[in-house]
Specification:
Radius of gyration: 25 Å
Shape: elongated
Low-confidence stretches: 9-33
Order of helices and strands: HHEEEEEE
Helix content: 10-25%
Distance between the termini: 88 Å
Length: about 140
Amino acid sequence: MYLLEVFIIFKHLTWRFGIVLAGILGWPNWAYCQSVELTLTPRLCVLEASERECGGTVTLRWHAPSALSACLFQEGQAQPLQCWQKTALGEYTLSPRANRSVRFFLAPPNDNSVIVEAWFQVLQQQTAHRKRRNPWSFY
């Protein structure tokens, strides 16, 4: 019984020590990233059967509980769309010519780690072709 109590206390202290150590060593990104939000307006584009790609503008907004330096990227592009230095919010407007869904993400400058991501969804409307068939035809 005594050994079990010692183990529980040790486990509890180890957990607390790990959290404190992570904060000291600069690993708060996990908890920090949970509170950064990236929103897209609009988030969805529905293409008619005759359309090839989405038009219009998309506004990306992000905000964080405290100031940070971050860059906005579009998946598949090496260069950032926009970067911000030590600010808690940002906004960027673009006119995508997209025929498929596109991923946008915030990342620290000169770092590949993703802080937060959001998707611009592109859906293609399908035309329904119904066969007219008469199952009891006499001919």
